[in-house]
Amino acid sequence: ALVSGAVEELRGLPSALRSRKISRFLKENGVLEPERSHIRAVEGLVFSEKPSAKINLPSGVTIAREYDRLVALENRSMPEEVTLLPGDVLQLPQWGMAVSYVPAEEIINTKEIFTVNVSGPVVLRSRQTGDGIRLNAGTCTLKKLFIDRKIPAHQRPHIPVLADGQGVLGVWGIGANVDRLATKLPALQIRLEPLK
User: Which 3 state secondary structure label does DSSP give 96?
Assistant: First the structure.
């Protein structure tokens, strides 16, 4: 994602100068012939009350507002759900992750390692409506958690969520569901790390 000037800065510019800056931003980000309607649409993002609004423009470019900045996004498809079996050590390029799901040698829980009590098949997937997790600070939905942590809307579907039949086990980069933590061995451990 390529970053433009701050939204507040664009809001403060005279209309003609703001249009020129937006036009240059669009050209730099793949909209070769920005039309007046494209510039107006981006101005709509700049003045929008929604901190994560976005618009789709020709040539597969999406311009998104991420709180106080504008970014151009490549249109990436949603990664597919993957079922994990005990003993799996997998490379998942669609997620940009390597995952291992093996017996734990010790109980460790971090933002990338989850030693949890599992019930049934485990899936690695995107957030779904109604997903919730209990962290040390309390229980909340993943939607609220992602908003509170200012994770841009376009990134949220690409954050790996581990779940089984009883719900969320953990979220990569955030941590394990404290209601599902294993307290003794033997237990299974899921480890996620970005592909090199």
Answer: coil
User: Does the bond joining 186 to the residue before it have cis omega, within 30 degrees of 0?
Assistant: yes
Residue 46, sorted as left (phi over 0), alpha (psi -120 to 50) or beta, turns out to be: alpha
Give the chain's mean pLDDT.
Answer: 89
pLDDT score of 177: 97
Q: What is the pLDDT of residues 167-193, one digit of tens each?
A: 999 999 999 999 999 999 999 999 999
Give per-residue pLDDT as tens, 37-79.
Answer: 999 999 999 999 888 888 887 666 789 898 888 888 766 677 8
- Please report, as a single letter, which amino acid is at residue 39: I
Lookup result for tokens 């703001």? 18
Residue 80 near residue 94 (C-beta atoms within 8 A): yes
Which residues make Cβ contacts (< 8 Å) with residue 155, sequence separation at least 6? Answer: none
Tokens read off for 15: 């209309």
Alpha-carbon gap, residue 29 to 73, rounded angstroms: 9
Spatial strand order of the sheet with 54-57 comes to 2-6, 69-74, 61-66, 54-57
Q: How far apart are CA 25 and CA 21, in angstroms?
A: 6
Reported as type and span, the H/E element at residue 191 is strand 188-194
Record the tokens describing residue 184, joined without a space. 């003794």
Q: Compute the 3-state secondary structure of the chain and give helix, strand, coil in percent, each to the nearest 5.
A: 20, 35, 40
- Mean pLDDT, range 98-126, rounded to an integer: 96
